[in-house]
Design a protein that fits this description.
single chain, 132 residues, mainly alpha, 2 domains, 77% helix
Length: 132
């Protein structure tokens, strides 16, 4: 739901704010929320006792998604299509979209394999990685 609302908001803001400022604001927001998420996980994830800190970590993920969809999902493809000259615009955008789909596919495959790996510890303290 956050993604859909972010794309609608981005489509409404793209001509009013501009493509480049929208992407710069989105990049800054993504960086800040990822730093906030990393700080919350590093501080509160292991103990699991501070519920406010854990909730802030989850909220940071949703805020990241909002920044990403408002900026890169909506303005990104418009920006990428305008980079190419008119006679190459369709082919250039097709290459960009194909590359995005390929990266998404690789990401999905890698995370699916990593999530199946169980990390176990040996007596020496060295991690032993076994497939599940």
């Amino acid at each position: 739901m956050v993604g859909v609302l972010g794309n609608i908001l981005g489509a409404l803001l793209i001509d009013w704010v501009g493509r480049k400022p929208l992407m710069l604001i989105g990049l800054t927001g993504c960086c800040v929320t990822l730093i906030l998420e990393a700080a919350m996980v590093a501080s509160f994830a292991e103990a699991g006792t501070n519920h406010a800190g854990l909730k802030m970590g989850v909220a940071a993920i949703y805020i990241f998604l909002l920044f990403y969809t408002v900026s890169f999902d909506s303005a990104g493809l418009v920006f990428f299509s305008e980079v190419f000259p008119n006679h190459l615009r369709a082919q250039g955008l097709a290459v960009v979209i194909s590359f995005i789909a390929l990266v998404d596919l690789i990401y999905i495959e890698v995370t699916a394999k990593v999530s199946r790996i169980q990390f176990m510890s040996t007596d020496s303290g060295a991690p032993l990685i076994l497939p599940s």
